[in-house]
């Protein structure tokens, strides 16, 4: 393609209203333009990237045996009433009334529609399992759309739905999708993790999210350096420390600590390492009486884990200052287990600590040398905290690293939520009707593009992974206006590369070199070839990968083979 | 693809609510399923066809230099207010209110959005001309959606918009799109005509519609057998007859015609050929006084042509029975020019007639031997009628044939309707701002599929043109369950054909032969290969094209080359 026939809509200035780097770069590189809040047009360059993602997704879904179809965007309300979601979905569901005053919505997801199709078309267990997918425009009326296509209202999604006779078949189908997703994100050249996740509002049993790792990600995930274990940090299990509790070596000592309210204050005041301190947190128990939770000073309470404990009231409720004072005789900042008669639950790490520092249940007093069993009763023990970097992996293989991630895919075991509500039944092997079991599997196709940029960019612009690059090679003739040989060589090389099957963008604008370099770096073309008079006189072109720190001179006649090698290995092009 | 992994959703019964053959066959062949009125899911087999159409459209649009982008489906009302269409478009525009009570619509077309994009991005005449297109889901809230995807509410459309500095450039761009459309429909293997059309409500100057010819078409078009002239029958010019008017040969005679009200009655009563009779039609003139229109007995008044005459009131209004009796002294059925003092306009054909039979302006009386100039004044003369089969072509090359057509594409010269309303201005060559001139170009991608079926089917099912067939070859092993050699040969041939790059559907269901034959004919696969024990013993397979009346035995080892030839020539596969 020639730039003269494929205009670039690049912009130098950083757009004022774009908060995250992918949004800024997608606007600056001319990939997208905003039409309304959370609603974007994909410009030609952006659409090329989007289509490349789409193609990889489609190939791997097909390879996994899923059947592509195309469901309507506009869905009748009746189906959503059947599933019960017309009420439950809330204002994110974009509701529409047609000219005959019938209710519809712009589909944010298609469980209802596919279940309706299934129950009409599939009659026998012999036709199972089956997996239908589509790549289609969705709309979710986000209350605060932001970050460009990362959290847009209208977006492109691959959604798949599988139907099974039983749980074993569902697990097989789920695994096939898990494997397909792994291939997809691997082929797209992204660093990602499959993360154990809460299944949220879509309901069902097991689910995993696929996260692209990027510092700007909205989710925090913990993953093992020694296995493929990964989980949302809130869900990752914190194991017991490997070492047993030491024997008490200090005497229980009451210390006056005027003005000391926080753990940081306490460490400074006592000149103690933070890992020797314990935080006391008071929540309401099932009987609304105070329950004392103990967490190591440098750890964080995990409210999801705490809420799941049978002793604790749902939803998790922190005790009021009055209730705390009534139960402990002191305010928050000076609390501890010594002398407290109510239930005490210690985090697993705290349960292995000795000679701890903590509050004395008297304002402005703390204790050091606290030991369970000796100074207060042995507490109940539970996993109460968020994992941190360096914790052992819950699968006991390697240690945990913490990273931020952007969710780009999700695999669910839905179970019978929709099939039961909507009566999706087949004739079972035993001749009896059997309600089918479902899985659903989504990839945010447009979000993948933004996530790839969050993960792969530098100060000059985007650095596309090879599989997503809108063009593989940028061909830049310098001073073509005055040099016949530059012009002719550029044209000849362009044709040779096209013939070799490469996706080439020839910058035939006769722009200044600086403009051409900046544009090609901004839009992230992996391989750059510069044709200039001086090198050409020596029979050479100048090659530079988007991530190379230096250029390489390559013989004119070797250039096709040189590039072919680079495209195969990916060397130079991507991070 | 194997049928065991690509289920066919074929249906034997003709669906009760499907009126036209394409709708029936699309349901029966398992291409689509209805979700709601005018809203359809494309099943896997149908989607394959849709994607093949899409691919041809995309290739030819790209070849014509148009730039693909993707605009949002959901559009803000503000832009439609700017163009004035928020009010004008009427209830076909599906209006949406979002959670913040802002007005949007589900885009039925994208003139506003593309003009908004253009005015923000394109600043100079140097960037012109430019043509943007997309292939995208649209919604038009038809009051009575029908005929399946032929007149659906949600549908897939290719829409393109070109921007030009002047009319000459627009005409060039328009011609390029006309040529691209001609290539598209030719490649798709459709019999079609580019038809001069009224530009209707989208506004602008010149426009042509591309019609697929089919007896069931909603539009009637006239086209020349000797040139590429074609027009909606309402717009085709009826030329003067080639022969001059004969001299009067009969005396004016008043005939009592009791009960004769129609031209058919009159011909029967007088035993006259219909071409000797003249119909009198009375409409209101610009001054609301009666104007008498004269049309040959076997011709039809063309109200569009009549309404365009300066003497006639707009909109065309037929005179009331009272006004007619006041002006003519008789009621409809006995009217004529003899004795009428008001304006008379004769169709060009009538103007060349002599010795005519027509009403006598007295109830139950007619005249024969009427001649202009002798019995009544010479009338004004105009083209007032619809053309009929056999009329000379308006371009004087060949004669007209009449056919029915299905509109599948439309090319418009929009002019400045949107660019002026929305201030789409570039810096002109002279340094002054210049309002751009636009063209727009649509193809109903999903409708093309239905139109192709309307044109190409028989009583057994669909007959796909080669370029649209979901699979090229159907491979049917007979009795595979009990014959190892059939099974193994089928598998081997399947692999050979795939290796040769063919799109093959292997029916591995072990169904009865009749079921397999019926399914493959219903879904319209162009080439069928049957593998059976008896022929196989003689080293042969049985080939049959979808349109062949007989099968041919082909040597096992020749089969790939045989099919390759058939695929190249299209022989046997399509009509």
From TrEMBL, chains A, B:
Q: Please give the biological process terms from Gene Ontology that the record holds.
A: prolyl-tRNA aminoacylation
What are the TM regions of this chain, as residue ranges? none
EC identifiers of the protein: 6.1.1.15
Q: Does the keyword Aminoacyl-tRNA synthetase apply?
A: yes
Q: Please name the taxonomic classification of the source.
A: Bacteria, Pseudomonadati, Pseudomonadota, Gammaproteobacteria, Candidatus Competibacteraceae
Q: Tell me the function of this protein.
A: Catalyzes the attachment of proline to tRNA(Pro) in a two-step reaction: proline is first activated by ATP to form Pro-AMP and then transferred to the acceptor end of tRNA(Pro). As ProRS can inadvertently accommodate and process non-cognate amino acids such as alanine and cysteine, to avoid such errors it has two additional distinct editing activities against alanine. One activity is designated as 'pretransfer' editing and involves the tRNA(Pro)-independent hydrolysis of activated Ala-AMP.
Select a single GO molecular function from the record's annotations and give it: proline-tRNA ligase activity
Start and end of every Aminoacyl-transfer RNA synthetases class-II family profile domain?
A: 33-465
Its annotated compartments are:
Cytoplasm
- Partners and quaternary state? Homodimer.
Q: Which organism is it from?
A: Candidatus Competibacter denitrificans Run_A_D11
- Reaction(s) the record says it catalyses: tRNA(Pro) + L-proline + ATP = L-prolyl-tRNA(Pro) + AMP + diphosphate
What would be one Gene Ontology cellular-component term for the protein? cytosol
UniProt-listed Pfam families: HGTP_anticodon, tRNA-synt_2b, tRNA_edit
Q: Which UniProt keywords apply?
A: Aminoacyl-tRNA synthetase, ATP-binding, Cytoplasm, Ligase, Nucleotide-binding, Protein biosynthesis
Record HAMAP family: Pro_tRNA_synth_type1 (MF_01569)
Q: What gene does this protein come from?
A: proS
Give the family per the record: Belongs to the class-II aminoacyl-tRNA synthetase family. ProS type 1 subfamily.
The free-text domain note is:
Consists of three domains: the N-terminal catalytic domain, the editing domain and the C-terminal anticodon-binding domain.
PROSITE patterns documented for this protein = AA_TRNA_LIGASE_II
**Protein name as it appears in the record:** Proline--tRNA ligase
Enzyme class name: ligase
